[in-house]
Amino acid sequence: MSSNADVVFHSVDNELKMGRERIDKMSPEVVDSNPYSRLMALQRMGIVKEYEQIRQKSVAVVGVGGVGSVTADMLTRCGIGKLLLFDYDKVELANMNRLFFTPDQAGLSKVDAAAKTLNFINPDVAITTHNYNITTMDNFDRFLDAIRTGGVVEGTSVDLVLSCVDNFEARMAINTACNELNLLWFESGVSENAVSGHIQFIRPGETACFGCAPPLVVAENIDEKTLKREGVCAASLPTTMGIVAGMLVQNTLKHLLHFGTVSDYLGYNALIDFFPRMSLKPNPTCDDRYCVQRQHEYMAKPKIEPDCTTTAESETEAPLHEDNLYGIVVVSGDENLLSSNCDKNLTKPSEIPEGLKLAYDAPIVDEDAPQLSNEDDVSLDQLMAQMSGMCKTTAKN
Length: 397
Known about the structure:
By secondary structure, the chain is of the alpha/beta class.
């Protein structure tokens, strides 16, 4: 495990703390000083083909609140290559019921406070902060440019956009930008009563965009700003926020590292622990012209049929666990072998090895007693004789 000499410093209550050195390459070495050993174990166990690919991925997190801050924390601990943080709000003491932020950060901008903490946790992650409201005309163009050129490789786009905002206007801004740039993104949200939430994976042209199935505020032509009542705020639970953030990051990792099944829509109802799943098809008459354009592009693509032969070969190419630490061997079944073993079970009590005993005694068969016949043309007299012989055998026992 190689590393350079860069060290991260973090100040808490005027006390300077030193973070770990930056690491150039992830190592699977199982030692207490390796921050990636548990993550690289996914590769050895066959879950992920090459975990270190995560260092080549760039993710934009829009909204660093109850869900967004935990999402950024998880991605940083997983070793994401680059993280772009978007928010214009400040940390407040009212946010302390949630995870991540601490009281000493009150008054700081959320993106700056988050960046300092995340850099201290994992200095290998490149973090850029964007402290502005993406819904204004000028800032939308800045947002568009940031995700268009925010990839790990300079000049490339981000690999994924994660929406962790709490209002319809910001979600629509993200939807418009991702449709225009043809970028994949996840939408997430938690209900106002804090006991339900969801995530939605949006692939422009293939699945419904956020404007294809408009929410109630659009269907009823409601001004979202009038929904908030004076002196009343939305409820917030760190548990619900953490669960939704976990679902969001888990599906992000599955998409970026190509394992498991990514959910198109995954909901959560905390009252009954219900996790509904569904898929949403795009609306051909969507109001977003870029969404309609992406639909036409997707329909024009040739459909790729899965190659069953290649899949079967790849599955049998190598064992799931190459190291057989316990010497376990799989033996194919043999009917003759099984029948011979069954016959051995009728061993006489005197032949049982010391320390073992039979669960029950095998029946003693009288060789002189007439045996039952499988023939169909057995007479009644013969059957009576056979039953009489069986009775005599039972009486002897």
